[in-house]
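It is worth pausing here to work through a concrete case rather than discussing structure prediction in the abstract. The textbook approach is simple: state the sequence, then state the predicted structure, then interpret. We follow exactly that order.
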Amino acid sequence: MIEVLGHETRYIKGIGYGPKPPSRRNTLYDSSNQLQDELENTKEKLQESEAQVQELKTEVTVLKDEFAMQGANISKLNDFFARKRHGLIKEISTKEEISA
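Step two, the predicted structure:
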């Protein structure tokens, strides 16, 4: 059966005859290729993550600017209503003085 499948047999100390273990050179080469592939994948993921971080930084900057504009608008509205309130109080005081 081994001859049909083309496996090479070799004596393994302490175990006996069996399939020939892979050569160390091939094992190291495969491990090196696998590590190289993992490194490339990790680099790609890092680049994608850095791009996402940059997009989020831009979005945060835009939101901060919008928030600052809203704060300025709220401040203007508060000033407007304060002036209106002051005008109404003044108007009511004048009417009370006239009627008194």
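Step three, interpretation. The beta strands are 9-12, 16-19. The CA atoms of residues 30 and 36 lie 10 Å apart.
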